[in-house]
Every structure is written in C-alpha cells, then in structure tokens.
Amino acid sequence: MPIPMTPKQLAVMMAKAAEDVQAMDPVILDLTGLTSFTDYFIICSGKSDTQVRAIADAMMKKLKEKGRYPLGLEGYSEAEWILLDFGDAVAHIFYNEVRSFYNLEKLWGDAPKLIL
User: Fold this and answer.
1) Please, what are the domains in the chain?
2) Could you give the C-alpha distances from 67 to 50, 57, 60, 61, in angstroms and in order?
3) How far are the Cα atoms of 34, 51, 60, 75, 99 from residue 18, in angstroms, in the given order?
4) 10 Å Cβ neighbour count for 33?
5) Where are the alpha helices (DSSP H) in 1-116?
6) What is the DSSP letter of 28?
7) Predicted structure pTM score
8) Distance from C-alpha of 37 to C-alpha of 49, rounded to nearest angstrom
9) Looking at CB atoms within 10 Å, which of 57, 70, 104, 113 has the fewest?
10) Contact 30, 108 (CB under 8 A)
C-alpha cells in the first residue's frame, strides 16, 4: 500500500534521492497548471552512464520504500536520457552533455523552480 504524499513531496523525495548519489544540478520545475500530464519535472544529470543509472536506481529504491513504483521507465539501457515517470512527478536524468543539448529548463522556462 503506497504511503500517501502530495505531488510536491514526491518530487522533493525524488530530487533528494538524486542528490544522495551526487547528481549534478538537480532542479525541480513546478508544472502545475502548465501541463495536464504531470505536476513536476525533476531534471538532473550525471557524468557517466553508470552514474545516470545510479541516479535512476536511487530514485526507484527510495520510492519503493514508500510503496510507489514507476508507471514508466525509458532509456535505462542507453543511459543518455532516462525518463522515470511516477505520474505526478517525472524525472529526466541526463548524461551531462545530453542535458545541455535538450535544455529542458529553457524549454519549460515559464515553470517556477522549487528550492530544495
């Protein structure tokens, strides 16, 4: 049985799990009212494919402890851009150079950033 939490609590928990494994520049974007498919994006990056996978693993492990499992997981085997979908919060975990190329923070520039 999942432990109840708000979408914001979910997003913060995901970002903190990323920080625990030294993710680079974690950012939480509040998309509430800007999109219908999620409330928060967590964006972070790693220096290697191994670190990118470790970040995704840390998020999944932390949320599994709360009885929550991803609705979707994309890009894990390549580990250049892993998308981890928990419904109310979606993580974009990039290999550092790929994050710079796609620049989601600029694409969603109207979204307020949460401070951890």
Assistant:
1) 7-109 (3.30.460.10)
2) 25, 15, 10, 10
3) 24, 10, 10, 17, 15
4) 9
5) 7-20, 49-64, 96-102, 104-107
6) E
7) 0.94
8) 27
9) 113
10) no
User: Are the C-beta atoms of residues 21 and 10 closer than 8 Å to each other?
Assistant: no
CB atoms within 10 A of CB 14: 28
Report the alpha-carbon distance of residue 84 to residue 88 in Å, rounded: 11
Say which residues have a Cβ less than 8 Å from residue 90's Cβ, sequence separation at least 6: 37, 38, 40, 41, 42, 83, 84
pLDDT in tens, the chain (116 residues): 888 999 999 999 999 999 999 999 999 999 999 999 999 999 999 999 999 999 999 999 999 999 999 999 999 999 999 999 999 999 999 999 999 999 999 999 999 999 87
Distance in angstroms (rounded) separating the CA atoms of residues 91 and 40: 8
Dihedral pair phi/psi, residue 40, rounded to 5°: -140, 140
Contacts of 77 (CB under 8 A, 6+ apart): none
